[in-house]
Batch of 2 targets.
Target 1
Amino acid sequence: MMTATRRHALRYFGASAIVFATAAPFAATAQDRTSVKIGYAISKTGGNAGGAGITTLPNYQLWIKDVNDAGGLELPDGTRLPIEVIEYDDRSSAEEVVRSIERLATQDEVDFMLPPWGTGFNLAVAPLFDRFGYPQLAVSAVTDKAPEFVKRWDKSFWLLGGGHDYTDALAKVLSTASSEGTINSKVAMISVADGFGIDLVTAARPAMKDAGIEVVYDVTYPAGTTDFTSILNDAAASGADSFVAFSYPPETFALTQQAQIANFNPKVLYLGVGTGFPMYGANNGANAEGIMSLGGIDYSNEENMAYRKRHEELTGQAPDLWGSVITYSSLQMLQEAIKRRGLDRDAVSDELSNGTFQTASGEIKLEDNQLRTLWLTGQWQDGEYVAVAPADREGAKAPKLPKAAWQGQ
Amino acid sequence: MKLTYGIPAALAALVVLACAPLFVGPYWLGLLIGLAGYVTLASAWALFSGRTGYVSLATVAFFGIGAYTVAVLSEAMPYPVVLLVAAGIGLGVALLVGLATLRLEGVYFVVFSFGLAELVRQLVTWYETSINGTLGRYIFLDFGPEHIYWQLLALAVVTLLLTWWIGRSRLGLALKVIADDETVASHIGINIAWTKITLFAVSAVIMTLVGAIQSPRWTYVEPAIVFNPTVSFMTLIMALFGGAGRLWGPALGAIPLFLLFEWLSANFPDHYSILLGLLFIIIVFLLPRGVVGLFDDRFGTRRAEVQPAASGEGAGK
């Protein structure tokens, strides 16, 4: 992999008097090209580094390695050009991510930019991608406003759905199980007081109501909470058979442990981000069985399994079971669009909007610049985090309910 | 007094800076926005802290209040009114906080001001999640970066003029006495509390406006984004580096440091935080009175009217 050695853009800081000389951009012509420049700003430090380091950065690195091992990005005339990477750390700061993107577009003059991690940062850079004419394949951004954003920024693509998608799917799983008599029609919900938790619980309330599920317990807790004893006691006392937590990884892990200690055995246990980490299955062993969350994968998809193997070989860790494969697939779409249409960014954006792509997560055809064929609910079954919703999509497994009681340790 | 040359030179520089967006590319414009923002923040910080010795880490509390006000109100009322409301809220919070806490001294005030930023952030989070049921907010204002830049530039000019004027007013004179000896100041009839609160409020309102003006650049705002404590630390170190007690000190600190940070983050993205930490230590140990102070010592240009400097050794001597 060619890591960025050419961060030459700022070399003439010492002589900032020549500021004005930079006004005239000069683009390299196709003949003297020796590489395709791809740039991105990612949170390598700060609060977002955890998420970015699991779902986004390893996939960027894997894809760049895969492409360069194959001789580079293929262009419509069959020639290949290696990828040259320019990487910045946005340090989890909104102002920094904005300036990094400006630098990539106007100083480094990269051919394509990959998006940063997180809903907020993807929105912060969207106007810039649009102004400079770059397609933005936003993956790690869960937002119900995607249709609005597509109207506003026609080269933006939203690939992980919105809060409603996930909560509607969950409500459907619950109402199906309830109508079959497996569980009662009551749910206890808790959510983290941060972007993700609030979005999901706000979408879940009407979704549950429409599905005929009664929310009997609905509490928001501050991010970083470590003791859930009283919350779990209240949830157990609420009489609900289903317990749903729209939680972040530290709390997801804590809730799993504390529910066992409290011997709290809901028939449906649905937890938030972190459940889909391979580590979660490994740490909890047989006790992970039956736990549900967002995402999931189709283990019979050979492309995806091959991707997972390569990911583990390169990074030493398996990819998470929700956003990772979508991130990699979005890069495959970009690669294929460049192969079909060349390095012209308008043409590539057009191809991304209208083309059909074979990717690690199956065939992808965007609808209104959004990915609508997503795995929305997953469940740990026999040591695998399988996709259970939408139930009518090929590769979906039936949810196994009720969840078995905790096993003694 | 070299003012005869100073004023035309400053005016010429201002004209060049104001015209810059017409010539430079988007990247440099982004840099200029950052520069104008930090020059203003550092000058506003020094306006209070540099003259009273109260080292404040509350910069981002006001900065964030400004950004959030725009996020909440930008669709409900015209932009100038939004700015006025933001300034009003900043003023209100500053008065409230000032009345309650300016009796604290030294490190207690530092700790309190840092806590204030966190308190405001948690209050906003609580309000948004519990009362409003959302967390992030969108700002869709039809501003180009050049509009943001011009507003910030104007605010920077106002801040510097205000600093200059206060230095020459009765308020400035009172401050000098307070900084030299509070007991003497109170004995000769200076209202110490009122003087400090006025200055704190002026400084806070400017910081609030910087946040408000800059926020349309981010499109999406949530507490973790706008209440980022790094802003407070950067502001403080810039002001200290330049020399917090002088009119041009904070600006002279903000410009080179901002460019240095930019260069570091472009060329050493993986070592940025370490280098930044080292730089902080160096500045505090080697340049306790800032580059302006160093210049004065070397060339003896320091004027007879000694200005107090909020130096690295802590506040409230």
Note: The CA atoms of residues 40 and 157 of chain B lie 8 Å apart.
Target 2
Amino acid sequence: MIKDIVHLQNRNIFWKQNADQMNQSINIAKLNVRKSAMKKSGHDLYAVFLSDDLLYCRWSLAPSTLKAAFHCGKPLNSEILDLRIFDITDIYFNGVNAHSVTCIKVSKDDQFWTIKGLKRNRSYICELGFLTEDYRFFPILQSHPIHTPFQSTEDYVQRLPDVEQYYQLPACFLPWIEHPDAVVDS
Amino acid sequence: MEYPFSVMVLADSSFRPLVLAGSSMNSEEITKVMDLYGYIIAAAKKSTAEKPVAAVVNLFTLGWLNGVRGKMAVHSFLQQHPNHPAAALLREYNGSFIELCQMLMRENRLMLVPMALSQFPLTSYPLKGAASEDIKRTVKMWKGIFGEGPLSIWLPRGAYMPGIDKILQQEDCLFVLIQSDAFPAHERDKFHWISPHGLPILPYQYGQLNGQNELTVPPVIQLTNENVWRFFEQVEVLAVNHSPKQFYERIIHIPLIYNRMNEGKPLLTVEELNRCEAVFQMKHEWDDSVAFQMSETGGVLDLEWTFCLYACLNDLKTELESAVDSLNYLLDGARKGFPDFDYAHQRMRLHYGVELIPTLLCEELSGMDGAVFMLTWEYPPNIIGGMARHVHGLAEALAHSGRDVIVLTSSYQGAPEYECVNGVHIYRSGPLHEGEYDFMHRVADLNLCLYQKGEELLQNHDISVIHTHDWLTGDAAVLLAENYRLPLVSTIHATEFGRNNGIHNDLQYSIASKEKKLISASNTVIVCSQPMKEELRVFYDAGKKDIFVIPNGVEFEEHVMIEGRFNKIKPFIFSIGRIVFEKGFQTFFDIDLKSLKKKNIQFIIAGKGPLLEKWRSEVKKRGIEDCIHFVGYVSDNERRALFQSCEAAVFPSLYEPFGIVALEAMAFHKPVIASATGGLKSFVLHEQTGLLFEPGNAGDLSEKITTILDRPELAKELGANGHEIAKSLYSWKHISEQTEKVYDQTVFIKKMEGVRT
């Protein structure tokens, strides 16, 4: 066990050395991200699990952002916003290709909502926006994607080829959803 | 699975410093702390190096025990309770729990793992960066107490999701503890599990203190003051022997998992989250300048805030009230420039038992001074038309001259959110719905994303001027310039009126309206040719605007190896551009191919656009697919190779405000044949730097191609002359110098706005 830990620790050091070889610009990028990470940007949408099938969405929308949004797209009703939950399992979400979407009308003064009934082993993303005069959904904020727990503990086997490939080639594209803070620091 | 411990206990009882501070040495609270931690170290002393005891501890409690107040309390307690099971041991170490733990850890009898400091589930923070900060802070505090990092961090409520392994690994943790419910029951004992980021996983299972554990992994036992003495008595029975079995390594990806999830229990309640919301909001109440004021007592603000969250989550009302008051007092002093360092030091020494240096201030980003903030809908490597090359050339030349340049552009799949290339800081954002079918809707979506990202960047950097390129990013630029009172420069590369020779439908009208709004809101406007300037004046009501003519620049690129895809097509004439009607590629369909075929000449037309498939079908329909090749998108290297090896470059545009690709061909010493239109006429001088033909006239174009092919000496001379004019007038260095002058003038105009009468 200890041997394995040392082996893996060494592997970690190898990654660190690689990271050290990254140019200054990437370091600056990291600092930039870190610098802004904990600051209030005035517009955020978070989606976190309260249980395996219950999602909690919280948003903060600065009046200036809402004003800018209504400048870019004319709202049908400026008092009502749309909270949408898209099922984006195994796709690169482009706004029009979700497997399903759930729409919830919220007041522009609301700040959070809970959504029950998420399916197991699915990926979701939330968006807050509004309907435009031509009845199109205009997104303002998008949450980090989330993935619900496996249906069964054996489901991990389906991901095994992807996982082993990533383990061998850590630089390749991550084929699953990670904690947003892990993405920020990458 | 082999474990570095034989039994693990959870000692996470509430830490209530106010109760501790106000209590006497015989009180319940002091006894609780002394019993819980005392029995653990006594049990560890009983164990051997083969069967070490592991304990998950509350780091706030350990910090307090390390602080002045904690040490005094331990001394008094030992005097009052000389027969306590831990008393003799503690006396050997002068009452210091920390030194005693260090000794036991050195002897491999004890292994301590801290719970993440706030005890808030790391998967559920509704605050960007908070989970990673929590882990970092825990590691820092641990290092402050023990001098080295922890082996791992216990995840509050067992909440794990992918990526947490990576954050732990970045903090040099050696393993992650995940409850065994996450693994298939029949495989739990077969494998040595590893997370995708390479962190070993130790599955854990809760056990009981009844001495009848039938666990194959070391049990995790929840300790309370009521059962801790039994643990001390049974520690040898509870210990699980390591199995000598052979294990196989297996990498595993586990999505969300938390304690008792499979029993349908919640991870967190809405009430808990809403209760903590006020504490999350407090995190926004100080910035770097306030933290800097407090740097002498590094980390105090972060620790106070974390304790607020801890107290709030655990519903310790009195503790929360006191911690909020303390944080507000420190913030108030720091904001006014008179931080109370005595109080801050006292809090650190008495309350937390550690001093931390904040990461933020050590890693301060070098500031920018009067940066240019450019908005563009495309930027390399995302290239659709000439705008990306223009903005790229200009941005890099400006950065090379010492100017800070930030480019904000649209994102695409796999694109980094930020990168710095050749001194240019490139940020990408939006559109959120890049697959949206309605073009105007997609552009509006992009502009809102750019506006939001732009706000964040403008707040964090010293920007002196906003420079946008065309209407596509106009809304974002105008909103940002208005809200932040910054001067706005617009470069109009082409107009909707010019592209369509008038405005004929609603879409064109909408675009032209946006162009007009942008021109009207801009302090100064840049165009690339005199005809464009006239166009704006006549059709865009820009008669009173400050319009500057600055041509496009061109890069003088190195020769590259020829790529294989087009090797078989030789000799050939090359053309490149967006495949739209106004680029005039349809002129090729009617050229005199019969006579040109004798010369075995081929035509390669590169670029993508809405008409690409239509033109490909047209070529097939006319049976000329072996001669005219619409090759679609070409990479940068392919583009260079094609310029490098063609006989001549042809640009048959019907409308061309400038024609940067013709300049590119000149940079490669190639003879250029261009239609006599717009900006092309300004540098393709007939029979001097190239040949001009009548736009849309295929016969005229055939003649000019024949001339080039028949007269190689002339072709060479035109290529050389073209290169010379491109180099002298259109280098990006030259262009960026002219643009800088426009920036200076625009800033001046904006400043003078306030003093105009």
Note: Chain B touches chain A through 99 residues (CB under 8 Å).
